[in-house]
Amino acid sequence: MIVSIIYGESCQGTLNYVFGKEGMRILGYGNMCSQDISQKFFGSVLHFQGQRNATKNRYAHISLNLPHGEHLDDKTFHKVSKEYLEKMGYGEQPYVIVRHNDTKHEHVHIVTTNVNETGKVLSIFNSYRRSIAARQYLEKKFGLSPAPSTKQERNLPLYRLPELQSGLDETQGAKFYLQDVLNGILQKHKVRSFQELAKLVEPYHIEIRQTKSESGRVGVAYGLNNQKGYQTRFINGSIVHRGLSGPKLQKVFDAESKTKLLPMHRKRLLKQIETTFGLFKTIRPHDLAKVLKEYQNVDIKLDEKGDTIYGYTIYDKSGYVFRERELSHNIRMVERPDIFGNRDEQTEIDSDSKQYKLEVQKLIKEAFQASYLKPPKQNRLLSESILTKNLDNILPYITQTKNHIFLEHYLPKNQKELLYKVLEKEFPSVKERLYKQETKKEKETLEGKFQLIGKVLGNGIFNVGKENGSVRLLFQSLGVKYHNNLLSFTNSNKHKIPVNLGELPFPKAMENYVSTGFIRQNHLMLEMLTSQQSDSGLKMMDLSVFLPMIFPKLYQAMAPSYRQQYENVALGSYLKHAEWMHAPFEKSAKDYIGFFNAKGFYFVKGNEGLAFKSIYTDNRTSFALPERTSLYLNSIPNLSMTLKEQESLINALVKDGRNDLKNLWAGYLMERGLYGKVSYMLREENIYPNLHPEMVHHHMDSGLRKSIKQVMERKAGHEQNRLLSKGVYVISSLLGSRGKGQEEVYNGFKDELTDYSKFKGKGFSL
């Protein structure tokens, strides 16, 4: 199903189109006094409610489009439409749902207003993202064919070309077809001129004509011409949509043309293309698109007229579209006869080129790194690992890479067997150079850790010291150890720094093995705390919120003032990450709050606006929400009541003992798709993941159910299976609780895994 949303200042033209289409059927009105009202009466109500606010986005025109061959009866289509409106926040607004049958695909039009009865404007913040989530939810619920999720993946609706008749009135199908296609193009690409826009819309049978008034005002008109007898008159841009008028588009083009990032994108693309040309001896013109995509991940399309190729157009990942001559004349095909001159020759890499040698060296370097990082992690530094490796050791890591496959594919047949000899030749020099680079880097890293430890102790961030050896907890959290007045990396004695601390006892219990990822995260956090910088200057990640779980003894000894500062940064970092993870599911502002509540986070109103808190941090710690997010949440009709309803949910988590970071961690792993680790936590620790039931449903269907089944099959013994069955019960209860006398809301494991009903009362439940 494809959804289109268009906002506008007026509704009369839209209503004329929706109600005026021949064969249209009104499926229902929403929030009106009766279903038997006239079209004129509904139009008056909608008009006057929308006029209660001066916003330019007073009205919304939404279309829900099924793909070819898919059918819904009127009752079901009305139900789908109504639920979509509720998810998007229009459930209490006046609306009409109208079904059209003028195209081969079934579709409905919905007209409503963004202004509520009090004159307040509904938030359209993240409406595109929320619409995707609502659509995906409805596709799954009603068994509809899914549509692509991103602007880049979505195919523009070519099949929505209006009826094949000439002289179509601009208030009819042509106008809305133009809106759909032009809006999609302008979202997908950063267009800089009318000429560029005309080229981009050409495949959709749209013609663009620029106009200029006597006063010099730039205008634009659009027409349809499929070259098969179907043609419309040209429609002024302002009639198609106010945002598609000449002056409005010119402002967009000027802004995209003047951005400071534009020269950077040009420079990057030029280097990528020149590097490609430097690698190849010959390229068949029709192979260029494939070569650039495989080698540089650059998308191009050849500009052809008949059998003649007169250039190529680059569709950059930044959204900009460039003709090759705009970057440099030297990358035009006609300027490079040495590469493109003979069209009969095969596309071949120049094995004598400097770029080929660099690519081989790159293969060796990346193989050293891959062999070091591959589990199980080696208990030594990368420089030490490099010394132990020969070419045969890393060859498996070379041959499985995309770059090696690419090089081998385009090498001349008689040169492929020589690739190993080139690797042999380059291996010693790459090994020596990489060893020196990594050794220098390791020394600098250890020195940096030593200096950071001094700052942390000097600032009193943690209450640790020589007494009882508690300072060793700080050492461990930064990946270093202390022995015989020397500081070195935890996994190596190669580099050492003298530190005169004398005899230093060990604490009663050190932490278990700590991953390098958490060590890096802790290092970043301590750098931020010691420098008193905001996290904007450092790359903080969502993992920072879990540091007290990984280093509990150290963070328990954290000074209160620094603890509050740390928690503020950690909350902000986690918020950004979670918003991104929730996006595929978030359909409304209420969903935004509900998904965080399920994880143990909640929102409060303060003197400076809305703030973000959690059950894992001090109650006095909060993170102030960005202004846009606050406006988004304030669009909830009764926000105070929604915030109050959080209390019972949050208290239930605390009462059940789920205010432990391990519960949040289990949910985090589930979101990352690490189902094996989640199954292990259920099996060994009965950890209850803090995650919204809708998300748990998704992950169960995506592999978690299968993972738990595999764990059960591997596990032997009645007691072990009993414990795992309790874990299965925990996951099932996440998907739906039941009271006395009620049916089980969800029992996905009962048939396919085990009948866990005999374990009732022995597991965990909400």
Structural topology:
Layout: E1 2-8, H1 12-20, E2 25-30, H2 39-50, E3 59-65, H3 74-87, E4 95-100, E5 107-113, H4 127-142, H5 173-188, H6 194-201, E6 206-212, E7 218-224, E8 235-236, H7 237-240, H8 246-258, H9 261-279, E9 280-282, H10 288-296, E10 299-305, E11 308-315, E12 321-323, H11 324-327, H12 337-340, E13 348-349, H13 354-373, H14 382-387, H15 391-399, H16 402-410, H17 419-459, H18 471-477, E14 480-483, E15 486-489, E16 497-498, H19 516-531, H20 547-550, H21 552-556, H22 560-582, H23 589-599, E17 601-606, E18 609-614, E19 623-624, H24 627-633, H25 639-655, H26 661-671, H27 675-685, H28 693-714, H29 718-734
Antiparallel strand pairs: 1-3, 2-4, 3-5, 4-5, 6-7, 7-8, 9-13, 10-11, 11-12, 14-15, 15-16, 17-18, 18-19
Helix pairs in contact: 3-4, 13-15, 13-17, 17-19, 23-25, 26-27, 27-28, 27-29, 28-29
Short description:
The chain is of the alpha+beta class. It is built from 29 helices and 19 strands.
Mean pLDDT: 86
Question: In CATH's first tier, which class of the largest domain applies?
Answer: Alpha Beta
Unreliable residue runs: 151-171, 726-766
Instruction: Please tell me the CATH architecture of the largest domain by its name.
Output: 2-Layer Sandwich
* Structural class by helix and strand composition: alpha+beta
Within the CATH hierarchy, at the fold level, what is the topology of the largest domain? BirA Bifunctional Protein, domain 2
| Rg over CA atoms | 31 Å
Distance between the termini: 36 Å
Number of domains: 7
Which strand order spans the largest sheet, edge to edge or round the barrel? 1-3-5-4-2
Helix content class: 40-55%
Q: Got a strand count?
A: 19
Strand percent estimate: 5-15%
How many helical stretches?
A: 29
Tertiary shape:
globular
Largest sheet geometry: 5 strands, antiparallel
